[in-house]
Design brief:
By secondary structure, the protein is mainly beta. The chain has two domains: 31 residues; 156 residues, Immunoglobulin-like (Sandwich), CATH 2.60.40. The chain has one helix and eleven strands; from the N terminus they run αβββββββββββ. The strands form two sheets. A six-stranded antiparallel β-sheet has the order 1-11-9-4-7-6, with no helix packed on it. A five-stranded mixed β-sheet has the order 5-8-3-2-10, with no helix packed on it. A hairpin with a 7-residue loop joins strand 2 and strand 3.
Amino acid sequence: MRRPAIVRAVVSGALAGILLACSGGGGKDNGVVPGLQCGGAAVPAPDRVTLGCPADGVDSITVAVHLGGPTTSSDIYGLKFDLVFDPIVIQFEPPAFEGGFLNRDGAGTIVQAGVTQSDPGRLIVAITRQGVPAGLQATGADQVVMTLLFRGVSPGSTLIAFQNAAAIDSRLQAIPEIEFGTPLTISFN
């Protein structure tokens, strides 16, 4: 008959541990888990580069760079842009990851993304094809060019917006038909 008492003690101890782990044991956040939410993602459209979030996150969030198609240009060789944001709210977490668009024919790519110490709210990004003579055309409605990871730093909200953006052809000339979209809103609470 001692078995139910032992089971109750084990279950009670496990529940107490779970409550403490979830900050239910008197912590200042009262069991609320911080989270990152994404808003304002634009629907992919032909000749338009947009930002989107596949899902909200707990302490980090993935931001995908999309290219909508079909594109007017059949010679897209790379993209370069800055993303500006409030570094008090979020930080870029390297590395950046190539998507499936610029390397879909087996070509290699070079991806660079980094923040300078003098401007921690500006992520400078470039992705280009390597070792092939020509670029590609986006034929599908939505092509993922790359993904970037951001980590929440302190509660608040920030826009992530494109600046200094251009799509580049194989002659390293800007492709004027390709535009860059509206900002995302990232909230961390």
